[in-house]
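Figure 6 in text form: structure in, sequence out.
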């Protein structure tokens, strides 16, 4: 069967929010019209795809498990089938259920392992276990379904979207008081002559090694899709940005806001603390003079569903945290932006999830890859996104793009990634 138009009738057991969410991803997100026909109502309709427990239809079928027609979580984690084509639910190789399982991050509701920062890691993920983390697996499964229907949507050039987290605006500049004194004392005790000299140079008008904002602005000229996320906190082991109260920092943020929307980078210590999150957003809004509705979690420290519920309650509509810190790849199985589905309520929410595919620190600090190895990884990820659709989104930091310290030579990797937009 070859459909003459991109509109299909799907026979299902019943309509549920889980089912429609999954069908929207497979069809609507690719501009393919579809209609859902419940069992018992198929008379008078041409059925193009059977996703039900009924048999005897001479049309393509997808094995139908109970996952999309229930409201609870499975009692056991699914396994991959022997042919490594999909997850198995109720002994069924259910492609639609497999897509829903990964898109909604259902495994993160079921697996309790967390790292020292209370993060779900790539190491704990079934996608790592079964070797599919580096694949846009939900898009691959969607393509299999469309192939059954002889529908081709083709491929398109991936949109490149650089994003920058400002965790520490300056290494030395504008840092005063006790914090400056303690930092200087540490350098003296450790006899760190290089840092002492750098500090003196900055004090006398030299460029701070983390001052790479002209580079970021130039990237914005080449790639207007750029996004910036600002950490407002300055106190804490993992929250060490320059104080937002400093007038020069406010001036810098307003300058950056001229060419890139500034999103909130919720602090490490805002984890699980709704009032602190709202306070940080409010402080940033006072500086930029507009509502802040975009977010990326500092340290990629978030917990599903709690963190996403907090974002919604705080007025955030778009989150950019969806990837792992310890490995690159496709945490939710796609590079496409998708609405977050809250499994605790079984409903689609107004929070949009914008996945990214790699972070600078993942390549250099977590995985200890060389510059050459990193470029190979990035090219493979880009080709995956180009083949299956979505946005090629990635994270760098102002302190990592200036060839400083352990990042010596890594501007080559950033430039390589940016140049992919010209392919």
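Output sequence:
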């Amino acid at each position: 069967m070859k459909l003459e138009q991109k509109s299909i009738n799907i026979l299902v057991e019943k309509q549920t929010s889980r089912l429609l969410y999954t069908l929207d991803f497979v069809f609507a997100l690719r501009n393919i019209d579809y209609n859902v026909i419940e069992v018992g109502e198929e008379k008078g309709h041409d059925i193009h795809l059977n996703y039900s427990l009924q048999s005897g239809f001479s049309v393509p079928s997808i094995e139908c498990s109970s996952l999309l027609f229930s409201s609870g979580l499975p009692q056991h984690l699914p396994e991959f089938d022997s042919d490594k084509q999909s997850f198995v639910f109720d002994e069924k190789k259910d492609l639609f259920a497999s897509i829903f399982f990964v898109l909604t991050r259902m495994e993160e509701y079921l697996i309790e392992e967390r790292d020292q920062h209370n993060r779900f890691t790539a190491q704990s993920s079934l996608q790592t276990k079964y070797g599919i983390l580096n694949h846009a697996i939900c898009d691959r499964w969607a393509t299999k379904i469309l192939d059954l229907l002889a529908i081709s949507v083709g491929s398109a050039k991936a949109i490149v979207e650089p994003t920058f987290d400002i965790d520490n605006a300056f290494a030395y500049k504008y840092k005063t008081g006790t914090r400056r004194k303690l930092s200087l004392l540490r350098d003296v005790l450790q006899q760190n002559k290089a840092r002492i000299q750098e500090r003196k140079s900055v004090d006398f008008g030299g460029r701070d090694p983390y001052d790479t904002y002209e580079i970021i602005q130039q990237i914005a000229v080449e790639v207007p899709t750029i996004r910036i996320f600002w950490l407002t906190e300055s106190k804490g082991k993992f929250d060490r940005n320059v104080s937002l109260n400093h007038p020069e920092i406010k001036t810098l943020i307003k300058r950056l806001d001229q060419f890139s929307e500034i999103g909130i980078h919720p602090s490490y210590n805002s984890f699980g603390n709704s009032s602190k999150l709202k306070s940080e957003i409010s402080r940033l809004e006072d500086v930029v003079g507009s509502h802040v509705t975009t977010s990326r979690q500092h340290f990629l420290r978030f917990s599903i569903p709690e963190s996403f519920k907090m974002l919604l309650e705080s007025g955030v509509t778009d989150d950019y945290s969806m990837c792992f810190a310890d490995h690159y790849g496709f945490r939710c199985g796609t590079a496409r932006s998708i609405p977050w589905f809250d499994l605790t309520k079984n409903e689609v929410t107004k929070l949009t999830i914008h996945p990214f595919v790699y972070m600078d620190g993942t390549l250099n600090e977590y995985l200890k890859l060389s510059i050459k190895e990193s470029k190979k990884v990035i090219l493979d990820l880009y080709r995956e996104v180009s083949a299956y659709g979505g946005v090629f989104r990635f994270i760098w930091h102002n302190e990592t793009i200036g060839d400083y310290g352990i990042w010596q030579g890594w501007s080559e990797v950033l430039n390589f990634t940016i140049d992919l937009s010209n392919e």
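Caption detail: Residues 159-171+209-422 form a domain with the TIM Barrel fold (CATH 3.20.20.370).
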